[in-house]
């Protein structure tokens, strides 16, 4: 299972979902779904924009959990 840890890195950097939506030009609802780990299919464009805005690597926001 893959889990998004976007909430953790955003908290560390002091960035809100609203701020991230503005920084990435991605709809707030989409950012909210990624933040709440409600995404079923990950969009590489969105992940790329998030990583660029947060100045992080993909591994900083995605975690693989062994069952």
Low-confidence stretches: none
The gross shape turns out to be globular
The biggest sheet, with number of strands, parallel, antiparallel or mixed sense and barrel status, is:
2 strands, antiparallel
Q: How are strands sequenced across the largest beta sheet?
A: 1-2
> How many distinct beta strands?
2
Q: What key phrases describe this protein's structure?
A:
single chain; mainly alpha; two-stranded antiparallel ribbon; 4 helices
Could you give the topology of this structure?
Elements: E1 2-4, H1 6-13, H2 17-24, H3 28-35, H4 44-54, E2 62-64
Antiparallel strand pairs: 1-2
Account of the 3D structure:
The protein is mainly alpha-helical and 67 residues long. It contains four helices and two strands. It has helices at residues 6-13, 17-24, 28-35, 44-54; strands at 2-4, 62-64. A two-stranded antiparallel ribbon has the order 1-2. The mean pLDDT is 95.
Q: How is this structure best summarized?
A:
By secondary structure, this protein is mostly helical. It has helices at residues 6-13, 17-24, 28-35, 44-54, and strands at residues 2-4, 62-64.
